[in-house]
Amino acid sequence: MDQRARIRPTLLATASAAVLLSGLAGCQIFRSNDDAPTSATAPVATTSDQQAAQDAADEARTLAASGDRAAALAEFERAIAINPELTDAYLGAGDIYRERGDYELAEQRYGEAARIEPQNFDAQYLHGLALQLLDRIDESVRAYLRALTIRPDDFNANLNLASALLQNDEAGQALPYAERAASINPSDGPARVNLGTAYAGMGRHAEAIGQFEAATELMQPTPELLLNLADSYGREARFAEMAGTVRQVIALQPSAEAFERLGSAEFRSRRYQDALAAFTRATQLNAQHYPAHNGIAVCQLNRYVWSERRDTAALDAALAAMRTSLRIEQNQPRILDLLSKYGG
Prior knowledge:
Low-confidence stretches: 11-36, 38-42
Helix content: over 70%
Number of helices: 17
């Protein structure tokens, strides 16, 4: 099996959607209609047909190894047309479709292989992979579970099942598979990220920090990984480390999310002017990032309260920030309460 056939870790960030990082997309190649799979409705192949189909599949693998993927795909499809029960041909065609980024056709071919040979681990696993790449998460989870009944200790299947469950915000369900993947290969950075993400999703941030820190030593840290580490530092009241980690993110990839996290760290460290500056920078990078507007509002409300309610300019700035935030995201009960309390 292609050793790259795995999904990279799911990274959950506070106030943002889950992010799935896939290193499998490859180059998109537009296919002609001649590449489309044929329907597997032919009659049962004779012995001579079975041999002809196997010969075509063998030739396809030779062509694929030489780098001629288009010719290889044509041979795999020819093998399927001759013998619609040849599992290896479906898997070979599915691999090429997946490499091209044509996940729908890959899913069809892997799905047929899994139907023909239910106890074939590669068929079940790769079907799960294609489904996950199509964002059909519930179906991918079922396919990975079928694969794991065949090979319970497969690293990639445990890794990707954990990732799929985390995409569904099912940290508790993901945890045993994330733990198993990390125990099978403790030196794999993405496995540590998945395990840290599962711990964070369950509120076990001290354990999450340990896994995220290990991941930064095992792989090139990404902004997403560092933001998750920073969030867990914040949940453990380690605000100086939170701020330092977010500054690493800003050095790599400045973003509204990073500056908003920096503002949060500075605010909790009682550096209120620095917090306001960070929140303001976040809104300059993305005016629709409502958590940063909330940060500005809280900073300005503090200034108003500390002035014994005489600094009306600070109050006006706070109310304006809250109204802006609520125009972007209406479902914010706490902000509505603050607006009602201070805005009349």
